[in-house]
Amino acid sequence: MGKEYECLLAIDLTVPASDVEALLGRVKQAITQDGGEVVSLENVGTRKLAFKVRGKSDAAFHHIVFKAASAAVGRIADVLRLHEGVLRYMTTRVTGPYGRQEAPRQPQAEPAA
């Protein structure tokens, strides 16, 4: 099937809900095109941005977790880049247990005798 990825979208609040649903539908289609699978799709809600993007200080966030081949990541980027309502997006590969990358453990020094 492929590797596991997660994508976080920041969408302009002025975009109508029907357009957001259509955008998410195109993203799902890009994921499932080559046999990928959408694990979860969550509307995280409205959040304040750390800095203004195109004059906007708030955005609606959506979090997508999916399993797909690496080619799907490029297709998703193409879909999101072309939509004017997408302020920012970030897709990352999930590694390690529970979706978090584990830091390598440092060897512990032996106590002095």
Task: Label this structure with key terms.
alpha+beta, 4-stranded antiparallel sheet, 113 residues, single chain, 2 helices, Alpha-Beta Plaits, 42% strand
Short summary:
With 113 residues, the protein is α+β, with helices and mostly antiparallel strands. It has helices at residues 17-32, 70-82; strands at residues 3-11, 37-53, 56-68, 86-93. Helices cover 26% and strands 42% of the residues.
Kindly describe this structure:
The protein has helices at residues 17-32, 70-82; strands spanning 3-11, 37-53, 56-68, 86-93. Strands 2-3-1-4 form a four-stranded antiparallel sheet. It is built from two helices and four strands. The longest helix is centred in the N-terminal third of the chain and has 16 residues, at 17-32.
CATH architectural designation: 2-Layer Sandwich
Q: Give the strand line-up of the largest sheet.
A: 2-3-1-4
Tell me roughly what share of residues is in helical segments: 25-40%
- For the record, what CATH class applies? Alpha Beta
- What is the count of structural domains? 1
What fold name stands as the CATH topology?
A: Alpha-Beta Plaits
How would you summarize the topology of this molecule?
Blueprint: E1 3-11, H1 17-32, E2 37-53, E3 56-68, H2 70-82, E4 86-93
Antiparallel strand pairs: 1-3, 1-4, 2-3
